[in-house]
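Entry 12.
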Amino acid sequence: MRADIDALEAISAGDFTLVGPLGFVLNKQQWLERYRSGDLVTHSLSLKDPATRVYGEAAETIARHVQHASYKGHPADGQFRATHIAVHGDGGWRLAGIQLIPIGRPPSFARPAEQRTGERPATT
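Predicted 3D structure (tokens):
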């Protein structure tokens, strides 16, 4: 686990910020402390379908973030839409920010009628 924390420390910018899936905001030290303390354990994590755009000294990647994790012993598995922001400076690229948004089902008005609770498709 220590090597993973060292790697996260190395690839993240000093002013790194994480916006979590419930809207909480963590700075770099708070983010790393969740791993150091053992409160947050990531069993597996993958980024699916990444799309990256580079803007000079900054880059943005949007992907589907799939994790199997636990927080304080409770399951924290999920799929999120993730936005990663990286900046280029001395020493190369560093991760400046991550925002995670839960991927949910579309609201009922956006689903086909047969998928809406208690509704039937219109018949002609």
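Annotation: The helical segments are 2-11, 28-36. Residues 2-11 form the longest helix (10 residues).
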